[in-house]
Amino acid sequence: MTRETLAGTLEEIALLLELKGENPFKIRAYRQGAEAVLNYDGDIVAKATADDLKDIKGIGEALREKLHELASTGVLKFHQDLRSQFPEGLFELFDVQGLGPKKVKALHESLGIGSIADLKQACEAGKVAELAGFGAKTQVKILEALALRESFADRFLLGMVTPVVETILETLRQHPDVSRSAVAGSYRRAKETVHDLDFLVATKEPAQVCKDFTLLPEVKSIIACGETKASVRLNDGIQCDLRAVSNEQFPFALQYFSGSKEHNVALRSLALKQGLSLNEYGFTGDTSELPPIHEEKDIYAALGLDYIAPEMRENRGEIEAAAENQLPKLIELENLRGTFHSHTTASDGHHTLEEMAEEAIDLGLQYLGISDHSKSSPQANGLNEQRLMAQIKEIAELNKGYEKFRLLAGSEVDILKDGSLDFDDELLMQLDFCVASVHGVFNLSEDEMTRRICRAMENEHVTMLGHVTGRVLLKREPYQVDHARIIDCAAETRTIIELNCSPKRMDMDWRWWKRARDKGVLCSINPDAHSIARLHHIGLGVRMAKKGWLRRQDVFNTRPLEDVLKFLATPKSKR
DNA sequence: GCCGTTTTCGGCCCGACTGTTTTCAGTCG
């Protein structure tokens, strides 16, 4: 039983209850329960098994009992009974744009549709258009949505959409009728993957700006275009929304559309307690005492809160912290002094030691850690002992030519199946630092994988742990690890954990960093760069670190070179 | 189904857009 299973079951119940047309607030309670399970800071599975789920906000009497039954027996009768009333494939219908519970229910009850394949067939036969509440246009839209679903993924990597976001923002900025513009939504919150892009403008000509937005060269098709809102699909498949508001409304709209939904719900209920109602256009209710609102921070201030950075707006305690002046002072990109974990042509990188060093210097860094693969990764042209020794010498030679910069000699050494390392200690001692990572044998049990990784961290020469779960976002599932145990082990062994900020990894996940921080575990923001361009991903890494509530002092590579060298020369037990 | 410095009962965020309607339901964010 895992935390994800518990939360997933509650989510599924919510969906099933929607299909049954249950009370929407009950449905929401299940969703919020799922969220509470995911966010709970502790061993929720053990607590559910022991029926010890007291005082968790969002989990009341009924959910407590259900979670206990599920955790202790592996199944939940309530859930199974609900499930048996609908066909398996019905769930995938919810992924089709434009289909919600009511329509899915109607399709199922009237036409017996229980899968995507059924739906496609019924549309092509013209049966869907004949249903009450449906029509010819709806049928066409469903067919389009199905085609879209086949050709594109519905989520995109944060790092991959950055260029198109910058381009569109720039165009909006230059529009003669636009006074302010911004990107909002999950992009602004730095979620590792985004479903769509949300843009916002302040203008006196909303309808015109909306229309012009749909004419951008990046636009493939128009989903909707109204007086104040437009929705389009871009050439690369991502959906892109624009909201046009007045200058006075802009901060409210920016706050609102930045989300998250959970953060906003919490913020609004806080407002309600103060006799205020908050929407995307402003405050209503007793506004006589309110100061003027010019920007987002004025909204938070009006509610008695410190300004909350967008990355933190996930309703994971930030509102409470803001009310008590307890928000952390988050790390900024300019705090970084260097970075670790980069590859060169020696293994599977695209640039030489010198080229990587030049780029790091251009980025204003004082040091760059080189960590090519080790010999057990032949697919990545991993270095054997001789080649690594040669690289150490080469780095020493190059360092003679730099005045205020230093290449650090390291290795991304494979953690073998039993937790031993690909190089012996004598060789590891020759290095400035060592990143230990799992690159093969992914199919171990959670316990075995966790022990394997912990054993590696116990090695005196392992400076940091590389990509904790090995996930490749949107592509490969993480290998199973017990994050809590790994964090505890890192704290005990004084091993740094890497925040691998390659856009496809973002590993360790942001949801775990606050816990690691509180246990005194240091983070290193590492690009895992295989080319000079990818060194720039440290910027994304900083945003992800903010999402994990990390401060400057929590991140190892904010330290200047001198301090880093001193740290690396100190035995782990004394760090 | 959850929750409580208005409440142990009665609320629970709310507006834009579309399509099918003829005044509104459904979906989305």
Automatic annotation (TrEMBL):
A Pfam family the protein falls into: PHP
Catalytic activity entry: a 5'-end 2'-deoxyribose-2'-deoxyribonucleotide-DNA = (2E,4S)-4-hydroxypenten-2-al-5-phosphate + a 5'-end 5'-phospho-2'-deoxyribonucleoside-DNA + H(+); DNA(n) + a 2'-deoxyribonucleoside 5'-triphosphate = DNA(n+1) + diphosphate; 2'-deoxyribonucleotide-(2'-deoxyribose 5'-phosphate)-2'-deoxyribonucleotide-DNA = a 3'-end 2'-deoxyribonucleotide-(2,3-dehydro-2,3-deoxyribose 5'-phosphate)-DNA + a 5'-end 5'-phospho-2'-deoxyribonucleoside-DNA + H(+)
EC number: 2.7.7.7, 4.2.99.18
This protein's GO CC annotations: cytosol
Polymerase/histidinol phosphatase N-terminal domain segment(s): 338-417
UniProt keyword Membrane present: no
Residues of the DNA-directed DNA polymerase X domain: 1-314
Annotated Helix-hairpin-helix DNA-binding motif class domain residues: 51-70, 91-110, 126-145
SUPFAM superfamilies the record matches: DNA polymerase beta, N-terminal domain-like, Nucleotidyltransferase, PHP domain-like
Keywords associated with the record: DNA damage, DNA repair, DNA replication, DNA synthesis, DNA-directed DNA polymerase, Exonuclease, Hydrolase, Methylation, Nuclease, Nucleotidyltransferase, Sodium, Transferase, Ubl conjugation
Main location: cytoplasm
Cofactor: Mg(2+)
Domain of life: Bacteria
GO molecular function: class I DNA-(apurinic or apyrimidinic site) endonuclease activity; DNA binding; DNA-directed DNA polymerase activity; exonuclease activity; phosphoric ester hydrolase activity; zinc ion binding
Compartment annotation: Cytoplasm
Gene Ontology biological process terms from the UniProt entry: DNA repair
Gene3D superfamilies: 5' to 3' exonuclease, C-terminal subdomain, Beta Polymerase, domain 2, DNA polymerase beta, N-terminal domain-like, DNA polymerase, thumb domain, Metal-dependent hydrolases
Role description: Repair polymerase that plays a key role in base-excision repair. During this process, the damaged base is excised by specific DNA glycosylases, the DNA backbone is nicked at the abasic site by an apurinic/apyrimidic (AP) endonuclease, and POLB removes 5'-deoxyribose-phosphate from the preincised AP site acting as a 5'-deoxyribose-phosphate lyase (5'-dRP lyase); through its DNA polymerase activity, it adds one nucleotide to the 3' end of the arising single-nucleotide gap.
Matching PANTHER family: PHOSPHATASE YCDX-RELATED
Stated name of the protein: DNA polymerase beta
Organism annotation: Luteolibacter pohnpeiensis
Gene this chain is encoded by: polX
